[in-house]
Write a structure and sequence with these properties.
The protein is an alpha+beta fold. It has 14 helices and 14 strands. The longest helix has 16 residues.
Length: 329
């Protein structure tokens, strides 16, 4: 076990997450971080893009992520995550699992058994007509009349979600943000078969490597390959889904920075704001800000700022340049 001081742990975490200015490309970032999380909320920008901008700055071309996904196929989308294609065998190993450990696994099994004819319809339509949008499938489907307890009448979306998790169908593109579906065997390349236990071990190892450090009973343990070193005095804002702060308890222990995403908290009970972003300067989380980008007026608005925001202006200027904002208010 390689124990390090809190100061070393902070530097290692920043360097391991490529927030020290060392990132060279979108592909390099996804491979190092392990994945980008997808989410529909884009008060500033979708989180998968904001995470990359935090590392590359205004030079980041968002079209490059699409090229890597749909043209070069060096990345793939699966279950609301973007991953490097070399991790496909590990995700396929998890897709093959048939455990009923969790409630959602049991519910998924029950749904597929109760809707076997509907499943055959979806797969037959994709085989004949795919790639397809879910709404095109829904237009022809005769779904059960009783609403599902999870998704109401959106049975097609639920079926596709379950089949994707099990490696049967795949997202093969995006049309105006909507997922395009096809049979997984027609989209994914051939890959080796990895046992589930080995896949879980390798994915856990990748997570630890990407984090750089983890908190144990003995203190901060650094990954064997992690390297400490100086962190440039660089300022940037982080997405709420950024892996540096995604584990809120770890972020609080490492930086004494309590951070919560409050968009689901009633407005009167929010401590800060709806979609507040942490402000990173060097190897410290020093403040937070709530920017909002109006795509119609091309205005980047600052709704609030807290803590040490002496470096916030330069960060907002870079953010505005990347978004194509005409004004900052």
């Amino acid at each position: 076990m390689k124990l390090v001081s809190p100061e070393e742990a902070r530097r290692i975490a920043i360097r391991s997450q490529l927030l020290d200015g060392s990132a060279t490309s979108v592909l390099d970032i996804v491979r190092t971080l392990g994945f980008l999380q997808l989410d529909p909320i884009s008060t500033v920008a979708p989180p998968q893009h904001l995470v990359v901008w935090s590392r590359l700055g205004s030079h980041y071309d968002r079209a490059e992520l699409d090229r890597l996904l749909w043209e070069k196929k060096q990345l793939f989308e699966h279950s609301a995550y973007i991953r490097p294609i070399e991790d496909l065998p590990l995700i396929r190993a998890r897709a093959r699992r048939r455990r009923r450990t969790y409630a959602w696994e049991t519910q998924s099994d029950d749904f597929l058994r109760e809707n076997a004819a509907f499943k055959r319809f979806v797969l037959r339509e994709l085989e004949r007509e795919g790639p397809m949008l879910s709404r095109d499938l829904a237009h022809h489907a005769k779904t059960p009349r009783n609403p599902h307890p999870w998704w109401g009448q959106r049975q097609v979306a639920l079926m596709l979600m379950i089949l994707e998790a099990r490696g049967v169908v795949a997202v093969t593109g995006r049309l105006n943000g909507q997922r395009v579906w096809d049979l997984a065997e027609r989209w994914y390349p051939e890959s080796e078969k990895v046992p589930l236990r080995e896949a879980d071990r390798l994915l856990a190892e990748k997570r630890f490597r990407a984090q750089g450090v983890r908190l144990t009973r003995q203190g901060w343990e650094a990954h064997p390959d992690a390297e400490d070193g100086p962190v440039p005095d660089r300022a940037t804002l982080l997405s709420p889904f950024d892996r540096l702060v995604h584990d809120r308890n770890r972020a609080e222990a490492l930086w004494d920075f309590r951070y919560r995403l409050e968009m689901y908290v009633p407005k009167a009970k929010r401590e800060y704001g709806y979609y507040v972003l942490p402000l990173l300067v060097g190897d410290r989380l020093v403040g937070r800000a709530e920017p909002r980008f109006d795509r119609k007026t091309k205005a980047l608005e600052l709704l609030g700022a807290w803590g040490d925001t002496s470096r916030l202006d330069e960060t907002l200027r870079d953010l505005a340049a990347w978004l194509g904002a005409d004004t900052i208010t």
